[in-house]
Structures are given as structure tokens and as C-alpha cells.
């Protein structure tokens, strides 16, 4: 009888173990992710500046936020598009809500759209990814401080026919170019563009992943919660 009870106990233990192993793992939540309303993507989609348009870029922000338990916000990529094919331009500043925004550690980046485009709190130390990590900048290997924006310093789109958004974020070849900003506020000089977080210089050599890497980029984006 003792052996029978022992065997039943082992069977029950095995059954419990199997049930536990079959249960879905809980979603991982990074420290501070519940209150996070701004982050720099830890990686780009991998197709250069072809983000799948604004819709694809927003989806990328949303998926990364969901992976750390912060998917319940209306995430928008900070990107402008240019007028083309009868469609009007879109300003990055008009896509991201009213603020305030804070990173994964609760540090305030800006309290309003006006604050964001004036004197904001974005630096290499505060421009964190969705997981709360810093992004490599000038002096690091590799340097990935070029963040895609397609925007002027005030967050508006560029006028004219010259491509500054890699075909409104649909190109990944040798054609086109995109405006980028420096999240670490550092460049080759000490002039305002070199220190600009959203409008520093154009990419060179096209819109491919290799072209982005050649000037210090990796196809990264700024993501803001618009709600």
C-alpha cells in the first residue's frame, strides 16, 4: 500500500510539472516600463530606412513596447513624411501627442511639444531603449547615434522634391537619403546641427542598412506615447 501511495504521489508530481511547463510564460516587464512614454528602439527593422512607411514604423515601436510590458499605449514613431503622390506632408511633432514624456527610468525627456523642440532633457544618458539601456554614441563601437527622423529642427517636414525621408520610409537601396538626429548631442563639430537630436545631417550612399551604418546609424527610431 505504501508503494502504491508513493507511486501515485510521483505521478501527481510529474503531472504538475508537465502542467507547469506547458503554461505560457508571463510577459516580461522591465523596471519602469509601466510609466515609460518615450524610448529609442533597441534595434531597427533591419531593412535600412524601409520601415514600411509610418504604419510600419509605428508597429515597430508598438512591438518593442509590448515585449517589455508597455504595449498598452498609443506608440508613434517620431518621423515626418514629405508631400508626394497627392498626399500632404506629415510633421513628426504632430504625431506624438502633447506630453509629458519620460524614459524607462522615469527621467523626464520633455513636458510638452514646445519643450521637446526647445530645451529638452534628451542626452546619451537619458535617451534609453525600451529595456532601459543606453544607446551607443560617438566614441563607442559601433556608433549608432544617428536616429531616423526626416525632420527639421522644429519637428516639421521638409518641403520640396529633394528626398529627405528615404521615399517616405519605403526605400532600402542606393537611392534617396534621410535626415537623422544625434541622440548623444555630439558630432564632428560644435555647431548646432552636430548637437541636434532630430536634424543633424542626411544619410549618405542611399537608404540601405550599410548606408545607414556608414554615417553612424542602425535604423533606430524615437518612439513616443501619444496618449
TrEMBL record:
Region (Disordered): 127-155, 182-201
SUPFAM superfamilies noted in UniProt: C-type lectin-like
Domain of life: Bacteria
Key words of the record: Signal
Biased composition (Polar residues): 141-154
InterPro entries: C-type_lectin-like/link_sf, CTDL_fold
Signal peptide: 1-27
Residues in coiled coil: none
Name the UniProt record assigns to this protein: Lectin
Amino acid at each position: 500500500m505504501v508503494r502504491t501511495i508513493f507511486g501515485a504521489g510521483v505521478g501527481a508530481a510529474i503531472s504538475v510539472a508537465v502542467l507547469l511547463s506547458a503554461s505560457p510564460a508571463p510577459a516580461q516587464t522591465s523596471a519602469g516600463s509601466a510609466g515609460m512614454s518615450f524610448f529609442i528602439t533597441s534595434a531597427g527593422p533591419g531593412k535600412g530606412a524601409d520601415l514600411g512607411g509610418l504604419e510600419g514604423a509605428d508597429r515597430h515601436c508598438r512591438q518593442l513596447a509590448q515585449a517589455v510590458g508597455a504595449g498598452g499605449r498609443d506608440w508613434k514613431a517620431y518621423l515626418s513624411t514629405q508631400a508626394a503622390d497627392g498626399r500632404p506632408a506629415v510633421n513628426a511633432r504632430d504625431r506624438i501627442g502633447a506630453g509629458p514624456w519620460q524614459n524607462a527610468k522615469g527621467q523626464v525627456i520633455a513636458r510638452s511639444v514646445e519643450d521637446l523642440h526647445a530645451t529638452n532633457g534628451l542626452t546619451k544618458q537619458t535617451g534609453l531603449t525600451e529595456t532601459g539601456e543606453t544607446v551607443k554614441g560617438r566614441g563607442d563601437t559601433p556608433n549608432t547615434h544617428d536616429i531616423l527622423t526626416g525632420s527639421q529642427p522644429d519637428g516639421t517636414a521638409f518641403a520640396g522634391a529633394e528626398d529627405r525621408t528615404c521615399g517616405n520610409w519605403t526605400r532600402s537601396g542606393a537611392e534617396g537619403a534621410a535626415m537623422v538626429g544625434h541622440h548623444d548631442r555630439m558630432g564632428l563639430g560644435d555647431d548646432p546641427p552636430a548637437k541636434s537630436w532630430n536634424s543633424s545631417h542626411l544619410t549618405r550612399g542611399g537608404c540601405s542598412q550599410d548606408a545607414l551604418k556608414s554615417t553612424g546609424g542602425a535604423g533606430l527610431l524615437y518612439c513616443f506615447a501619444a496618449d
